[in-house]
């Protein structure tokens, strides 16, 4: 299943993306965003999971949203 997302980027970041695509590092902007997100999730998964677990425990203990 594919999903579409829409986002607003600072112009400087978008310009950097365009440069990387123009230089052939990525097929297109979608490919670049996908790879960046995949790498972020791969490298931050343990700390993200720990944070989510802590938030769930806090909510369970105190019932705060």
Quickly list its features.
mainly alpha; 65 residues; 0% strand; single chain
Please provide a brief summary of the model:
This protein has 65 residues and is mainly α. The protein has helices at 11-22, 29-62.
Task: Give your account of this protein's structure.
The chain has 65 residues and is an all-alpha fold. It has a domain at 29-65. 71% of the residues lie in helices and 0% in strands. The protein has two helices and no strands. The chain has helices at 11-22, 29-62. The longest helix has 34 residues, at 29-62. The radius of gyration is 17 Å and the shape is elongated.
Portion of residues within helices: over 70%
Output the structural class.
Answer: mainly alpha
Number of helices: 2
Low-confidence stretches: none
Q: Report the strand count.
A: 0
What pattern of helices and strands is seen along the backbone? HH
Strand content: under 5%
Judging from the principal axes of the Cα atoms, what is the shape? elongated
Largest sheet: none
Distance between the termini: 30 Å
Q: What would the average pLDDT be, to the nearest integer?
A: 88
Radius of gyration: 17 Å
């Amino acid at each position: 299943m594919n999903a579409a997302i829409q986002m607003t980027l600072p112009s400087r970041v978008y310009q950097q993306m365009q440069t990387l695509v123009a230089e052939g590092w990525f097929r297109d902007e979608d490919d670049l965003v996908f790879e960046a997100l995949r790498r972020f999730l791969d490298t931050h998964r343990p700390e993200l999971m720990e944070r989510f677990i802590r938030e769930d425990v806090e909510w369970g203990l105190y019932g705060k949203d």
